[in-house]
Design goal:
Elements: E1 3-8, H1 11-19, E2 28-31, E3 38-41, H2 43-47, H3 56-62, E4 69-71, H4 75-93, E5 96-100, E6 103-107, H5 116-130, E7 134-139, H6 142-154, E8 161-163, H7 167-175, H8 190-195, H9 201-205, H10 209-216, H11 218-227, E9 244-254, H12 257-277, E10 280-291, E11 302-313, H13 316-330, E12 337-349, H14 362-382
Parallel strand pairs: 2-4, 7-8
Antiparallel strand pairs: 1-6, 1-7, 2-3, 5-6, 9-12, 10-11, 10-12
Helix pairs in contact: 4-5, 10-11, 12-13
The protein binds a DNA duplex through helix 3, helix 11, strand 9 and strand 12.
Amino acid sequence: MPYGLVDCNNFFVSCERVFRPELNNKPVVVLSNNDGCVVSRSNEAKAMNIPMGMPFYQLKEHDKNNIVTAFSSNYVLYGDMSHRVMSILSNTIGNIIPYSIDESFFAIDNFQQLPHTKAVALAKNIHQSTGIPVSIGIAPTKTLAKVACKFAKKLKGYKSACIINTDEKRMKALQLTAIEDVWGIGRRTIPTLKQKGIVTAADFLRLNEKDIRREFGLPLAQTWKELNGIDCIDIEKGDNKQSICTSRSFAQMVDNEEQLQTHIANFAAQCAMKLRKQHSAAQSVMVFISSNRFRTDLQQYSNACTQMLEVAASNTYEIVSAASLALHKIFKKGVQYKKAGVVLCDISPANAIQTSMFDENQNRRDKDNRLSALIDSINKANGRDTICLAAQLSEPNNDNTQPLFNNNLRREHLSERYTTNWNELLKVK
DNA sequence: TCTGGGGTCCTAGGACCC
DNA sequence: TCTGGGGTCCTAGGACCC
């Protein structure tokens, strides 16, 4: 059964351009949180040799004439645009297998179901309806669909859709595909493969499957099979996450425990909310902190601590308390902290919690759960953090204080939330 | 001065059992 | 001096992805 892949071109940049069409054909980049580094580039920016992940301050030096337009990341906007693209796709194709914010696989019964003309029309429809240009690859396996999609994106003649439906086309495509461009082969294995004289995907196929399995492990052996046309990579995961993480780098480094506790409380509360959203509970709460690894002139320290809960929980109070305890165990005085985060693990469905025979806190836990549900509904109706724990406030004793979340974050090039906020709609003269 | 965030899966090795 | 064998489970760390 063949697979298709729809991949949005330069997705974040394309989202920004929908509302700033004057930036079409100009170099544009979108930055990570804190305006840290480049995470999305227009073709023009790529042509200027701006690499993925380039720190923004280096870009400023690189781009002396200021011809590159930079945006802070606007995830609300990108999430909404992604939803629009995926809706059209699923309305046209039926069942889709979402893979990331900007790409989705789908399975078709046979190649006749989506011939080139129809695939071209689909790409065109998505572009016209949403403003987002996409590329489509169709092939016998997901890994080959990825290969096809790269050609659809790179070569104009394909009109945004490329189909690999014969062995001849497959081998031709693999000969023209550099080994580092193969989905599933990462930077750590490339040097070893190159040493063996493997330069293209076709070279890689000359290796023996058993040897690959032994030397590189199961995932690479699966990639080998997929390139041979044998479908074996399954990415259909359940709707529920197995771990939930909230973490940030700080614009300004933090050195006192109280302030770090406030950040951790906000991360933990955010994690708990995501957890409840998927109707799950977590049995363990991990907290990590680290200094600025780029500042070799400062003391380096990073550590993590996992706090187990007696009974899996999802209410904010318990999760924030556990995180606070964990932080206290690893906090070291005198360190300038640059990054911190909370990860929830051992996640199970909330309706299947294994209770403890010796649990004397069930009544309190029931109350906390009801309270968290109430907080969620108030915040959903009135905006994030309308109600929060005092531990999340930067100055708990001051009535005007705000939750600290995202406060220590640099976002100097933020666009409007054009599609999700009435106050930020596009203005037309 | 300024360097992101959030996931998944696999594996080797240790702990533990009989 | 000589010091079992075989199995399971758990976990930290590493690889990959976008």
